[in-house]
Design brief:
single chain; alpha/beta; Rossmann fold; Alpha-Beta Plaits; 5-stranded parallel β-sheet; about 60% helix; flat
Length: about 500
């Protein structure tokens, strides 16, 4: 059975980890638990666990020293560090020292831990199968060599990763302070890990601070939506785990690998010429106006601002007339994919226009800029119609959202879950809820969960960990943090007062 050891000097964290480990499926064995590195070093030697989850800051011996000493004594298992948001440099040192992953204390739950353990199992299996590991390394090296050849305008025998492709250049810098050379390794590791989840055939090349990525799919809409989701995932991981700001340059959709050198040059030029604070850049065209319109449509649709969305579409329609047909089609398709990919209302509007056909088929069937302009005008009109209907029932939406929240306080859910249940977009729900209730969605949910928690604690019938579960927190430590933030005291202090 897979064996896990846990090391942390906070009793609540140990208790939370112990409870989550007991629920893992397939089951694992808790080899040991220790509250400092010195005890853990002895326990590792005695039990030889497959995986050790260790805090970084601990008395007597910290997590970094524990890793170093255990390696010297012959331990060959895996380490995953448990860190806080303010331990960025220490987490980097741990990764450089050989840790294979990291967990943020305030975000630990059973699902996250299950993913970490599953990855550890996979790495253990790969280590036991050198031939499979060598094959995977060879495949990654071949992909990198192929992409490097295409970047230099050379031919390669390998197949493209999809019928439609997008080239990305990703860099990152610390949100505060000077650039850290250790960050480069972390960025490239995260980019590779996330990219292969979305695009198993993705190709990655590392050049200095840049991670250059070629993604492909056989459907343009799927490609563009997946690229945006992937980039958002990378951005969020770097921000949360390494306090770093990601900058992503994205090419237009490529139909042939022969366009890769030009696309790379355009993306790099866009990144050099952009404001240092810009996180999402487009190298699809040299025309900065359409770059701005694409960003504007995404921002508007994500926020549920359908009025602004329709305005942007009409602005784009006015400017299409001066473009060659193929470029106008590409711009139109990208705008439509952004509208559909980030908003349920946008998807509904396009479904009305496309009926049973794909967006790409509808757009490329239009054979003049005038027809493309009319298409965008019609799409803007559909958004206006949906907006007028929404304005009539915004109060009803807020009431139904509050009803959903009240019925699901014992579960973990977010804005996306409620929007999905109500068949509306997240942006519209967020705006309608704040307008009618007077506070943000997350603040309201938190206040309701803590209100119920105080009632359960005051009843005297439940332990703190039971109350945490009954208000949808799998992690007692995180529950206590949120409770203190809202109530000004910990759950145990609240019990003593009441």
């Amino acid at each position: 059975m897979f064996k896990i050891g846990i090391v942390d000097d906070e009793p609540l964290v140990l208790a939370g980890l112990r409870a989550m480990i007991a629920e893992l499926r397939p089951p694992v064995e808790l080899a040991f638990e220790a509250d400092n590195g010195s005890k853990a070093l002895e326990a590792i030697a005695q039990t030889q666990p497959d995986l050790v989850l260790t805090d970084i800051r601990m008395p007597l011996m910290d997590g970094l020293e524990l890793m170093r000493r255990s390696r010297l004594e012959g331990y060959t298992g895996q380490f995953v560090v448990i860190s806080s948001y303010d331990e960025f440099k220490l987490a980097q040192e741990a990764m450089n020292a050989g840790a294979c992953g990291y967990l943020i204390k305030l975000e630990m739950d059973a699902a996250v831990l299950s993913q970490v353990v599953e990855k550890a199992r996979e790495r253990q299996g790969a280590a036991m199968a050198p031939a499979a590991q060598y094959q995977a390394m060879s495949e990654n090296l071949h992909r990198a060599e192929t992409l490097r050849a295409w970047m230099q305008g050379q031919e390669a025998s390998a197949a493209a990763p999809g019928q439609w492709m997008t080239l990305l250049v990703i860099t990152a810098h610390p949100a505060q302070g000077q650039p850290n050379p250790q960050l480069r390794q972390c960025v490239q590791r995260i980019v590779e890990d996330v990219a292969l989840r979305y695009f198993p055939g993705a190709m990655l090349v590392r050049e200095g601070d840049e991670a250059i990525l070629l993604c492909g799919a056989d459907d343009q809409q799927v490609l563009q939506q997946s690229v945006r989701e992937m980039c958002e995932k990378i951005r969020r991981l770097l921000e949360q785990y390494f306090a770093a700001v990601a900058r992503v340059g994205v090419s237009g959709v490529l139909e042939t690998t022969a366009r890769i050198p030009q696309a790379l040059a355009q993306v790099r030029a866009a990144m050099r010429g952009a404001n240092a604070q810009e996180e999402w850049l487009s190298g699809a065209r040299g025309d900065a106006v359409f770059d701005t319109l694409q960003k504007s449509i995404c921002t508007a649709m994500q926020a549920g601002d359908l009025k602004r969305g329709s305005e942007v579409l009409r602005q784009a329609a006015e400017r299409l007339g001066g473009l060659p047909l193929d470029q106008a089609q590409q711009v139109c398709l990208q705008l439509c994919c952004f509208v559909s990919g980030v908003s349920r209302e946008g998807g509904a509007a396009l479904s009305t226009l496309c009926r049973d056909e794909s967006i790409a088929h509808c757009v490329y069937r239009l054979r003049s800029c005038a027809e493309l302009q009319d298409w965008l005008e019609r799409l803007a009109g559909e958004l206006d119609a949906i907006r007028l209907l929404q304005e009539k029932d915004s109060g009803d939406v807020a009431d139904r959202a509050r009803q959903y929240i009240a019925q699901n306080l014992d579960k973990r859910f977010g804005l996306n879950d409620v929007a999905e249940a109500l068949h509306i977009s997240q942006g519209y729900l967020s705006a309608a809820f704040k307008k009618q209730v007077g506070m943000g969605f997350l603040d309201y949910v938190t206040s309701e969960k803590i209100r119920l928690a105080t009632e359960l604690l005051s009843s005297g019938q439940y332990h703190i960990y039971e109350v945490a579960r009954r208000v949808g927190f799998e992690n007692q430590y995180y529950f206590s943090k949120v409770f203190r933030k809202v109530m000004g005291c910990s759950p145990s202090e609240y019990l003593k007062r009441s």
